[in-house]
């Protein structure tokens, strides 16, 4: 060593006791070099930190000096103007040469022009001062946050600091974040024009949170690992998965943790909840007033961290059960059930302490477990099923793939029912009424993001249902056997064939599966795709049978009439069932959603709802309309067929002109030519009454009566002359006809308006008839003739022959 270099050592009294102990120990001298390197590294880090703090202090002081100079200038300007104002408003001295009028004018000028300008300037100065103070406050808060984030990211500092100090720094950062957010909310409300300031602060906060949140999550995962989470799944897998008993002996690390470990976990859990609460507040502020509505409530981060490792552990077992999906659902349900009480008893109080509004740990745990299951179904299970279905479609036989698909859906529906019972088991009212909450706890939500899979399922359900209905339709006994029951709105029997019950039951099964879907859009779509096909198939079967009966005999024989009557009864029964269902709010909601899909209720440019003349009804409105049209069409055909037969048998009655001039034989109360027509009428009506339901039978005989009325009136107009004997004969014949229809109403003549009015005119005396017709419509109405016009009345008058 160079002799010129002099090393001065400190006195022994100046050394600390650790240093003396180190120098006196020969054992520690071997570690001197590493110890020196470590001290130099720490000194270098501290020097860098000190340089950074000095630089930041320098920039902060410069910024504050700039703001201070600007504020001083503004206050100097305001002081100068206030001095000028005081000099203008003070009374002038006695020696002043200004006249009183000049002083008064100057005051008006000051009060009217200069004072408002000065007030605006003072307000501007106050705004600048408030902006400067707010900016300085925000800069200080954000600086503290960035310091904490920088300190927690320093590896050497983390190495030589306790976990407690890291948690303390994180708590400090969260507190500063909360204070910063309070200031930003206040600025947004009071000074919405300061967007640049808010944007700059948000940008810096986002950078800090991008570091703080992943670090908190990483610490949380490390802590869970030290707790022994996730628990071993071997006990669950070895147990009987089909049993409904909870596995009490399953170890629960969250319940067994104690002491410092429990304190650290609770603090870390609270830190994550606080960060999420801050995130929610920031998003709420940033989206305030936004037209686009977004779902601000995210899954609880701390619960997700509990579920993720369990999900990964479960998937190793799921891969063995691709062909046995019931084991997958059983395992997920068992894990969910066995640990759900932990969420209520241990974690819910922590969430309540943070005041996270709208969060239930029970719901979040169940939702996260279901989400992990849905993710696995979407990635592994359904792609295999779709590939199997496509492979069998090439060979032309898809029965095995369809059975597997339906079995999987059955498992999903049963699983969802079990999960919903877990959610509601706590006895508190949960937010499951809206579709969003229900979707989170439903395994069927896998179809929400894959409408192609949804359409495949609906098609499989439709084909399966139609195949099961085919034997019921082909069995002729189901068309002849009547349903024993009463009307839903009365006491009369529908007389509907038993096949109607088979279709209703199958449709009910489709509706039950539809109820399991997590949102109304999917429910309405599924019901239209699968349920609508059932109704259409039912209507096609009815139409085919009616057309067969019409094609064979044109409904002239009783067998064909009975066959059509059965189909009409079946349509009436099915229509009434659908109408009763439509009174349920479930189907009304589906109908409203289906109307939105079709474009009803879309607002026009004026902001009003379009097509308001078409109220939104039930989802079955289209099917009900088709059934109504079918009934009306074939009820009308029954009436038309009966009317044609009556017309053919009554033509001779009107063609025989002589008997309108002769009296009836004493042994006859009606014309012989009308006997066959009335006998045919009674026979057809008896068959219709026996086989048709009473509601549609009323439509048949009323339609028939209207047709007979038109036939009789046209026949009256074709007769050349009416003598007194002809009028008497006509009166007797009409009394007999009215008597036939009197079995179904109290005033049958009311259903033959034209014939009744014509008979009234014929029965009048010559003078009364002349006065009635000449008096016009008013006079005719006074005499009870209201269904004939004047021209028709004049024709009848010309046909009446009075004997002198």
From TrEMBL:
InterPro entries assigned to the protein according to its UniProt record, in alphabetical order: EXOC6PINT-1/Sec15/Tip20_C_dom2, RINT1_Tip20
GO cellular component terms attached to this protein's record: Dsl1/NZR complex
PROSITE patterns on file: RINT1_TIP20
BP term (GO), one: retrograde vesicle-mediated transport, Golgi to endoplasmic reticulum
Highest taxon in the source lineage: Eukaryota
PANTHER family the record matches: RAD50-INTERACTING PROTEIN 1 RINT-1 (PTHR13520), RINT1-LIKE PROTEIN MAG2 (PTHR13520:SF1)
Protein name, per record: RINT1-LIKE PROTEIN MAG2
């Amino acid at each position: 060593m160079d002799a010129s270099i002099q090393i001065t050592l400190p006195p022994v009294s100046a050394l600390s006791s650790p240093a003396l102990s180190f120098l006196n120990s020969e054992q520690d001298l071997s570690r001197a070099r590493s110890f020196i390197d470590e001290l130099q590294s720490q000194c270098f880090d501290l020097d860098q930190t000190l340089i950074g703090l000095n630089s930041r202090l320098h920039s902060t002081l410069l910024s504050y000096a700039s703001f201070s100079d600007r504020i001083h200038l503004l206050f100097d300007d305001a002081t100068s103007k206030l001095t000028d104002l005081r000099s203008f408003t003070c009374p002038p001295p006695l020696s002043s040469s200004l006249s009183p009028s000049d002083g008064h004018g100057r005051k008006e000028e000051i009060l009217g022009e200069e004072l408002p300008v000065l007030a605006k300037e003072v307000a501007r100065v106050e705004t600048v001062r408030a902006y400067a103070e707010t900016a300085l406050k925000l800069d200080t808060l954000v600086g503290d946050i960035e310091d904490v984030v920088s300190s927690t990211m320093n590896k050497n500092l983390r190495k030589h600091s306790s976990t407690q100090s890291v948690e303390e720094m994180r708590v400090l950062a969260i507190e500063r974040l909360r204070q910063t957010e309070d200031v930003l909310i206040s600025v947004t409300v009071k000074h919405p024009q300061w967007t640049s300031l808010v944007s700059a602060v948000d940008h810096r906060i986002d950078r800090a949170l991008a570091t703080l949140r992943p670090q908190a999550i990483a610490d949380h995962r490390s802590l869970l690992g030290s707790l022994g989470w996730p628990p071993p799944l071997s006990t669950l897998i070895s147990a009987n998965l089909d049993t409904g008993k909870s596995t009490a002996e399953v170890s629960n690390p969250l319940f067994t943790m104690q002491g410092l470990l429990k304190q650290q976990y609770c603090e870390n859990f609270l830190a994550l909840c606080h960060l999420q609460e801050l995130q929610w507040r920031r998003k709420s502020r940033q989206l305030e007033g936004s037209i686009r509505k977004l779902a601000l409530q995210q899954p609880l981060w701390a619960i997700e961290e509990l579920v993720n490792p369990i999900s990964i552990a479960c998937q190793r077992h799921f891969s063995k059960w691709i062909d046995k999906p019931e084991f997958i659902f059983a395992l997920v349900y068992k894990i969910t059930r066995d640990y759900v009480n932990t969420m209520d008893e241990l974690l819910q109080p922590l969430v309540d302490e943070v005041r996270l509004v709208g969060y239930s740990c029970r719901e979040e745990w169940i939702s996260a477990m279901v989400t992990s299951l849905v993710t696995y179904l979407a990635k592994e299970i359904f792609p295999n099923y779709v590939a199997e279905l496509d492979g069998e479609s090439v060979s032309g036989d898809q029965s095995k793939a369809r059975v597997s698909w339906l079995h999987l859906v059955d498992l999903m529906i049963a699983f969802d029912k079990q999960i919903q019972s877990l959610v509601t088991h706590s006895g508190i009212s949960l937010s499951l009424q809206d579709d969003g909450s229900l979707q989170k706890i439903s395994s069927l939500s896998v179809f929400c993001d894959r409408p192609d899979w949804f359409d495949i399922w609906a098609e499989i359900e439709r084909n399966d249902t139609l195949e099961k209905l085919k034997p019921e339709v082909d069995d002729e006994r189901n068309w002849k056997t009547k349903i024993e029951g009463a009307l839903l709105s009365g006491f009369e029997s529908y007389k509907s064939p038993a096949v109607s019950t088979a279709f209703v039951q199958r449709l009910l099964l489709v509706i039950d599966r539809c109820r399991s879907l997590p949102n109304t859009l999917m429910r309405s779509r599924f019901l239209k795709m699968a349920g609508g096909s059932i109704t259409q198939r039912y209507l096609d079967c009815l139409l085919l049978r009616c057309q067969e009966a019409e094609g064979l005999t044109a409904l002239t024989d009783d067998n064909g009439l009975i066959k059509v009557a059965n189909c009409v009864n079946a349509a009436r029964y099915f229509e009434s069932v659908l109408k009763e269902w439509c009174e349920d709010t479930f189907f009304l909601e589906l109908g409203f959603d289906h109307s939105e899909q079709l474009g009803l209720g879309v607002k026009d440019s004026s902001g009003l709802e379009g097509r308001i003349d078409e109220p939104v009804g039930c989802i079955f409105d289209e099917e009900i309309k088709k059934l109504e049209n079918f009934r009306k069409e074939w009820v009308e055909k029954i009436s038309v067929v009966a009317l044609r037969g009556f017309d053919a048998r009554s033509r001779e009655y009107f063609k025989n002109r002589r008997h309108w001039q002769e009296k009836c034989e004493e042994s006859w109360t009606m014309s012989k030519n009308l006997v066959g027509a009335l006998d045919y009428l009674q026979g057809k009506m008896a068959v219709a009454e026996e086989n048709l339901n009473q509601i549609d039978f009323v439509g048949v005989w009323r339609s028939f009566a209207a047709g007979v009325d038109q036939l009789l009136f046209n026949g009256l107009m074709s007769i050349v002359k009416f003598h007194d004997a002809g009028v008497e004969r006509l009166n007797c014949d009409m009394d007999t006809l009215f008597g036939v229809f009197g079995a179904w109403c109290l005033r049958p003549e009311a259903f033959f308006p034209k014939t009744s009015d014509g008979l009234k005119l014929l029965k009048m005396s010559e003078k009364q008839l002349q006065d009635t017709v000449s008096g016009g419509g008013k006079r005719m109405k006074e005499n009870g003739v209201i269904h004939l016009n004047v021209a028709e009345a004049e024709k009848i008058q010309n046909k009446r022959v009075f004997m002198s």
